[in-house]
Amino acid sequence: MMWVILPVKHLAHGKARLQGILSDEQRQQLGYLLLVDTLQTLAASAHVQGVTLISSDEDISQLADRYYARFILTEQDRGFAKDAMTAVDSVQPGSVEKVAILPADLPCLCESDLELLDTSHTGGITLCEAKKDGGTNALVFTPPLSIPLLFGPDSFNRHRRAAMDRQVEVNTVVAPGLERDIDREEDLIWLSRQPGGAAAWNYTRDIMRSSSR
């Protein structure tokens, strides 16, 4: 089983790349629903031991309580990697076998993706690549963390190089629900065209239908 870490930017500041496409209210609601969908999937998984949610948005603590996740409040948005590292440091040594760092905006995440992550990780680090920009949409490790966190564009390759430089075993997985997060207009179009989904899918589909009228 895995302990999952979810760094979440303040919802009022999230999805900045969708400015000009969505209103501030729509961006905030989309971020909220993506987080809800992710927490629901994690809470229902037999492969998740627990969840730590870290954010500067105090209102998110209510969601954490609803889904029995630990919540860490930061003073400001400090970036995905810094928040993830703070959450990693909060994990009690010896209490967790595996830690997975995931983004909170994976609308197609499902139990089979989490099962694959859990069962594929046998040591070192396990990575899942973000399909569109070479980022890292999942990083699993057995504590303690043996490489620096290098999230961002091309971070999949940067994480691999960092591991190889330190002679750390690297495993890679291809999991459909982990390959695509939601940041740009083409992601909204893609999500709206999926045959089904949860709350964020419904909301995105309605937005895209309204904008095409």
Tell me what the structure shows.
By secondary structure, this protein is of the alpha/beta class. It has a single domain, classed as Spore Coat Polysaccharide Biosynthesis Protein SpsA, Chain A (Alpha-Beta Complex). Helix content is 37%, strand content 18%. The protein contains seven helices and seven strands; from the N terminus they run E-H-E-H-E-H-E-H-E-E-H-E-H-H. The protein has a seven-stranded mixed beta sheet with strand order 3-2-1-4-6-5-7, with helices on both faces. Strand 1, helix 1 and strand 2 form a beta-alpha-beta unit. Helix 6 packs across helix 7. The longest helix is centred in the first third of the chain and has 20 residues. The radius of gyration is 16 Å and the shape is globular. The mean pLDDT is 95.
CATH architecture: Alpha-Beta Complex
What multimeric state do the chains show? single chain
Question: Which bin fits the share of residues in helices?
Answer: 25-40%
Q: What would the principal axes of the Cα set say about the shape?
A: globular
Say which CATH homologous superfamily is assigned: Spore Coat Polysaccharide Biosynthesis Protein SpsA, Chain A
Instruction: Give the strand tally.
Output: 7
Mean of the pLDDT scores? 95
Walk across the major sheet and give the strand order.
3-2-1-4-6-5-7
The share of residues in extended strands comes to 15-25%
Which H/E pattern describes the elements? EHEHEHEHEEHEHH
Strand-helix topology:
Blueprint: E1 2-8, H1 24-43, E2 48-55, H2 61-66, E3 70-73, H3 80-90, E4 98-101, H4 111-120, E5 125-129, E6 136-141, H5 155-165, E7 170-173, H6 185-192, H7 199-211
Parallel strand pairs: 1-2, 1-4, 2-3, 5-7
Antiparallel strand pairs: 4-6, 5-6
